[in-house]
Amino acid sequence: APSTMMYMNSQYNHPACNKLLLGPNLSRDGKHLSSSSAVPKAPKAPEKPLMAYMRYSKKVWDEVKAGQPELKIWEIGKIIGKMWRELPSADKQVFNAEYESEKGEYQDLMKSYHNSPAYQSYLQAKGRADVIEAENRALERDESCISIEPADDGAGDTDEGFSVKHVAAARFQRNHRLMQDILTEPTIVPTGRSIVTQQRYDILKNQVQSLQKHQQKLQDELEDIERSHAGTKRKWKQQGTKFESEMKILKTITPQEFYVEYKKKQEQQRLLREEMEKKNKEEMEAKAEEERKLAEKAAEQKEGEEGEIEKKESIEEEKEEGDCKNIKELKQETEEMEINQTNEDSKEEKVAETEEMEDIGHEKEINSKEPTEEKQVDKNKE
């Protein structure tokens, strides 16, 4: 049955730039493929063994994540990397041994995988698909001219692995696309990839600023290096000039004159050295004197502070002694007052007792006088 095709425009692109072809046995770029040219999926290969670091990371990942759940993935990876670098060699050797043992098994599995019938059939199908793709690229190589070439009559498949109908369909698709590219308007709607969001713009802006700062830093370092190099170069030039002048002088004088000049230089150096030593000694003595004065001042200040502290302590002790004396005097006064009070109370009690005794004796006297008087009255009556 003839293949039916339909064009679908995407929501961003102009139809002249990007066309989606719908139809049986059509690839993304419009080529007519047969069922024999479709590349099958490769059989699943054996899994590669994990490296020693990945094994260690897999082992401690959950532990680190549980200990610090607020960290991000890259921060956890940074911590695990530091732990791996600080891990002893003996512990690392365990993970390396596991990797090496599994690596040998993996190599044996890969050999059997490459020799398996499924992988060999996959390679053959991939080779056929590569041949067809190369032929299609050869057909589309000359895109500058527009022509519809007649297809040669023939039945069956060609020796190259594709039929005459497939070649005719590919040529038709190519010519149709070229004609539409020329006849359509040149206005093109921008794709979605060219639209930059504000978030993406901010990220790019921060990256540009970071690169500018890094460039400025490198430029400053380069200027420092150049200044250092210029100073070193100037120093070497001065030393070279001085050496040349000394050589010229040596060429013009005799050995005796050179010996005299040498002695003079030695004497000058000795004097300079003695002067420097004297100056250093004076500076050290002045520094030691200053330190001694500071130490004496600190000692005097410390003694004054200690004297003030002792004075305060003595004043506090005197206050405490005075308070104790006052307390003792008050205690004695209170005791004396209590004793006096008790004595007065006892005197009052004795006085009260004597008064009571006197009252009782007076009453007895009165009572004893009354019957005698009554008896006298009775006698007088009689």
From TrEMBL:
Keyword DNA-binding attributed: yes
Coiled-coil annotated residue ranges, if any: 201-235
Highest taxon of the lineage: Eukaryota
DNA-binding region, residues: 46-114
Record-linked Gene3D superfamilies: High mobility group box domain
GO molecular function, one term: nucleosomal DNA binding
InterPro entries referenced in this protein's UniProt entry, alphabetically: HMG_box_dom, HMG_box_dom_sf
Entry GO CC: SWI/SNF complex
Pfam families to which the protein is assigned, alphabetical: HMG_box
Protein name per its UniProtKB record: HMG box domain-containing protein
